[in-house]
Amino acid sequence: MAQPPVIRLHPEDSVVIARATLLPGAPVGDNVRSTARIPAGHKVAVRAIAKGEAIRRYGQIIGFASEGISPGSHVHVHNCEMGDFSKDYAYGENAQPTAYFNPQATFQGIVRPDGKVATRNYIGILTSVNCSAHVAGVVADMFKRNPLTGHDPLADFPNVDGVVALTHKTGCGMTQDEPLRVLRRTLAGYARHANFSHVIVLGLGCEVNQIGGLIEEQRLSGRLRGLDIQTMGGSRKTVTAGVAFVKDVLAEANNVKRETVPASHLTVALQCGGSDGYSGITANPALGAASDLLVRHGGSVILSETPETYGAEHLLTRRAVSKEVGEKLVGLMRWWEAYTEREGAEMNANPSPGNKAGGLTTILEKSLGAMAKAGSTNLVDVVQYAEEVKARGFVFMDTPGYDPVSATGQVAGGANLVCFTTGRGSVFGCKPAPSIKLATNTPMFKHIEDDMDVNCGTVVDGDETVQECGARIFDLILRVASGEQTKSEAFDFGGAEFAPWVLGATM
Q1: What tens digit of pLDDT does each residue of 316-368 get?
Q2: Half-sphere exposure of 466 toward its Cβ, with a 13 Å CA cutoff?
Q3: 259: which strand partners?
Q4: C-alpha to C-alpha distance for 267 and 369, rounded to whole angstroms
Q5: Surface-to-core class of residue 141, CB atoms within 10 Å of its CB (0-12 exposed, 13-18 middle, 19+ buried)
Q6: Residue 11 CB burial class (10 angstroms; 0-12, 13-18, ≥19)
Q7: Residue 377: which of 315, 295, 312, 283 has the closest Cα?
Q8: Roughly what angle, to the nearest 10 degrees, separates helices 178-191 and 211-218?
Q9: What's the whole-number average pLDDT of the chain?
Q10: pLDDT value at position 345?
């Protein structure tokens, strides 16, 4: 059956969404016809909207009319702007007991000696400072397959997924308070991550982020080996020592097997990037349905990107298990308001140009669609950037909206798998965690199918419901957690995307 030309998301909405590009005169509902060309995924008014009046999508305020808008008009940045409005946080009003499944779903995971469960099995090379980044890369490159000769140094170690160097641009020229603590917390989260069997931390020797200080402050031990270039006698000797360490532990790292474990051992990072007008209609709510399934099977999901939740936080506080948890989230919003003001920016600097080209007008609209990734279960905790996630269920982590920085914090917090929705075609990996890419629309999925794992455009195409698509995503999560390779893994994405949050002055 032919689909209607527009999508209406809520009876109280003053706009509808173009299912495909609309030409002037196309019917958009309520006996209204479009008065202009409306790009796919963009908004069109279905009634007159007075200047200063709230514009609604999802039944929520996404902005205010900067001029009078007539029925059938294109609604976007030229006539929709930000404005202040009151929010009722109604802490815990919609919280309700979680209907857990029994028995739980299972996957084939790698159980570590400390009881944590891995979805991948890497050897990691971290750096304390940017000055040791090249040396770390040289060590990792020694264990890569040569595409010309076909020689694979890991051929005899089939259970090792690779040796990966995760480098960054900081570690020195920084203040020794919050910026250093955040960096160390991030590095420690990776050093302890279940998806690493062993870890080396490489430093220069004179940096602010001393390896000894990192190990002592974060109480790191066991699988970690620290090396610094100055003490070792230079780059070549450090590379030799690093390569020797990896060779020494390869047999031990390879001595693992996958076994059946409950889905409660999964912690999934929820990400969106390169969003468009369909994100909040297809991929994000479908991932939300998958998130609900995982939580009901005892697992955890981490929603982040605080600036991209701004304006929708009052819907999450209603799901908080306590007022204290809800107030933590509101407190984050106040911090970000002050932070952007101090930096001479504004929260509505997000959406990006690509988001706007895809139909998203304000941060309020983007946030309302982005939060759908977290489904409908209770908000059980709110944590700092890169803080270890201990609660089971839906957790919020404070991160920037920039995808690599946000995902780095989530993985440092313990996420052993990433689900990433995109409408414009973001390509992303996140070693040591596998990254599943979810397309919001069918044309983009077909255009860059080599990078996309799931087409959620089927929802707007009318081929399946949000719940059916969510069930399909959940099944893929279990398969990927069991070892099935994602598209980004096939392209070896995930090393260069490591990006700890840089705070404070660089001096």
Answers
A1: 999 999 999 999 999 999 999 999 988 888 877 768 888 999 999 999 999 99
A2: 18
A3: 109
A4: 22
A5: exposed
A6: exposed
A7: 295
A8: 80
A9: 95
A10: 84
Contact between 276 and 355 (Cβ < 8 Å): yes
Distance (Å, rounded) from C-alpha 301 to C-alpha 194? 16
Give which of 248, 255, 215 is closest to 139, Cα–Cα.
Answer: 248
- Which two three-digit tokens encode residue 251? 């047999």
Tokens 């190990």, residue located: 215
CB 93 within 8 A of CB 291: no
CB 130, CB 169: distance < 8 Å: yes
Burial per residue of 356-376, b for 16 or more beta-carbon CB atoms within 10 angstroms, e otherwise: bebbbbbbbbbbbbbbbbbbe
Neighbours of 95 (CB within 10 A): 19
- Beta partners for 74? 44
Which residues face 57 on adjacent strands? 60
For 471, phi and psi rounded to 5 degrees? Answer: -65, -35
Structure tokens at 324: 């204290």
Write the burial class of residue 327 (CB in 10 Å: 0-12 exposed, 13-18 middle, 19+ buried): middle
Strand order in the sheet with 54-57: 54-57, 60-65, 80-81
Q: DSSP characters for 136-190? A: HHHHHHTTS--TTT---TTTT-TT--EEEEE--S-SSSS-TTHHHHHHHHHHHHH
In the chain, pLDDT over 90 holds for what percent of residues? Answer: 91
Half-sphere exposure of 147 (CA within 13 A, CB side): 3
Is beta strand 162-166 parallel, antiparallel or unpaired with respect to 117-118? unpaired
Query: CB–CB of 110/66 below 8 Å?
Result: no
Q: Which amino acid, residue 180? A: L
Q: What pLDDT digit, counting tens, does each position of 61-85 carry?
A: 999 999 999 999 999 999 999 988 8
Could you give the CA distance from residue 429 to residue 420 in angstroms, rounded to a whole number? 9
Tokens 């209607």, located at residue:
4
Residues of the chain with pLDDT under 70: 1, 222, 350
Contact (CB, 8 A) for 214 and 208: no
Whole-number Cα distances in Å, 427 to 151, 441, 470:
28, 15, 21
CA pair distance 43, 61, nearest whole angstrom: 14
The C-alpha atoms of residue 198 and residue 136 are separated, in whole angstroms, by 14
Closest by CA to 267, choosing from 213, 334, 200, 189, is 189
**Cα gap 445→461, rounded to integer Å:** 13
